[in-house]
TrEMBL record:
The keyword Membrane applies. Residues 1-23 form the signal peptide. InterPro entries: YibE_F (IPR012507). This is Uncharacterized membrane protein. Keywords: Membrane, Signal, Transmembrane, Transmembrane helix.
Length: 385
């Protein structure tokens, strides 16, 4: 059984790697900057604030509050390193666009180039990545200290997941391939790699893999059915609307992208449930080797029900939390229930939450049943010598 599982894992990896190579060699490429206009090349530079002047209010213009002078020093390595520029910071009275500058602050700059010279430069945003790297470092240290070797394996699977999505899933979607099929396929690959790396090649991981893939397929089918009958467009977010303008030559299936997002958003919770149920059943069997399959199945289902009660809440609350500003707008303007429930955005979130939860719930009996099947086959082989 272990050899069969390893062979299946290798075949799945080879299949997806071959598909990725074929798609990248034969697919259509998107040129985001295909234009006949002569636009100067630009680059993003890093800088540090060395001087900030006083804020000067402006009462004559209604579109911004005022301005302040500041000086920035380029810290990016290259021809512009160490150069300083005197710039202007305009505040419009909106926290999303206004920058509160101080000396020593790291910022990103937008620079237009003409040859090796900067012809125009302005501030783009705060340099937030420095603090994000610190947070990532804290996360890795805590994960390794508490999780030990298990934590290291979780870190490996997290890295693999990021590589698969960034280098595999996203480029293929941009080349015009069906997002839903890609999401189910790559999610299955992530599930196989994650469960086998974390849990090892054994009945526990194999049962969890079948249960997770089954749950993902159910979520995908339900997402398509109810997404179609509810006429969900996929254009409920600004980002989805922007995708329709990136290139006329490529038609990304925005509705399929919505369904793909549902699958990927469900993957984490389904992985957690599948492994938890399979692991608990393996520990019970280890402690009570003579336990009957029916009793073990009931035990696995009981554990799954306890996990389900909290995990479904987690999934729905995660989607609710991301929509909290919108819910506050509805409450503040006393929008009618009929209007709210029939909005594309709200219907999309409801389908996303419930379809993901249904996939999660069905993962429990699927995982438990597959584990019993594998256990029964193992006992039959032992009896037959």
């Amino acid at each position: 059984m272990k050899k069969l599982a390893i062979f299946a894992l290798c075949m799945v990896f080879v299949l997806f790697f071959s598909t990725w190579v074929w798609a990248n060699s034969n697919g259509q490429d998107i040129d985001l900057y295909d234009t006949d206009d002569q636009i100067p090349p630009y680059t993003v530079l890093r800088g540090i604030i060395t001087y900030v002047g006083p804020f000067e209010e402006d009462t004559e213009h209604q579109f911004y509050l005022g301005r302040q002078d500041f000086r920035v020093k380029i810290t990016s390595k290259g021809n512009f390193y160490g150069k300083e520029f005197d710039l202007e910071n305009i505040k419009m009275g909106h926290p999303l666009y206004d920058l509160d500058l101080r000396v020593g602050q790291r910022v990103l700059l937008y620079a237009e180039l003409s040859g090796e010279e900067i012809i125009n430069i302005g501030i783009q945003s705060y340099a937030r990545d420095y603090y994000l790297y610190i947070l990532v470092g804290i996360f890795v240290v805590v994960l390794l200290l508490i999780g030990g070797f298990k934590g290291f394996k979780a870190l490996v699977t997290l890295t693999i997941m990021a590589i698969v999505i960034i280098l595999g899933l996203l480029p293929l979607i941009l080349k015009g391939y069906n997002p839903l099929n890609l999401a189910i396929g790559f999610s299955s690959l992530i599930a196989v790699l994650t469960l086998f790396i974390v849990g090892g090649v054994n009945n526990k991981s194999i049962a969890a893999t079948f249960g997770v893939i089954g749950g993902l397929i159910v979520s995908g089918v339900l997402a398509v059915i109810f997404g179609k009958v509810a006429h969900l467009t996929g254009f409920s977010s600004e980002e989805a609307q922007m995708l329709s303008f990136i290139d006329e030559a490529i038609k990304i299936d925005i509705q399929g992208l919505l369904f793909a997002g549902i699958i990927i958003g469900t993957l984490g919770a389904v992985l957690d449930v599948g492994m938890s149920v399979a692991s608990s059943m393996a520990e019970i069997q280890k402690s009570i080797p003579e336990i009957k399959p029916l009793h073990l199945l009931k035990a696995g289902m009981n554990v799954g029900r306890d996990i389900m009660g909290t995990m479904v809440n987690t999934l729905i609350l995660a989607y609710t939390g991301s929509s909290l500003p919108l819910l506050l707008i509805f409450r503040a303007y006393e929008t009618s229930y009929d209007r709210i429930i029939n909005m594309d955005l709200i219907a999309t979130e409801i389908v996303r939450s419930l379809v993901g939860s249904l996939g999660l719930i069905l993962t429990i009996p699927l995982t438990a049943s597959f584990y019993i099947l594998l256990m029964s086959r193992g006992k039959k082989r032992e009896e037959n010598g």
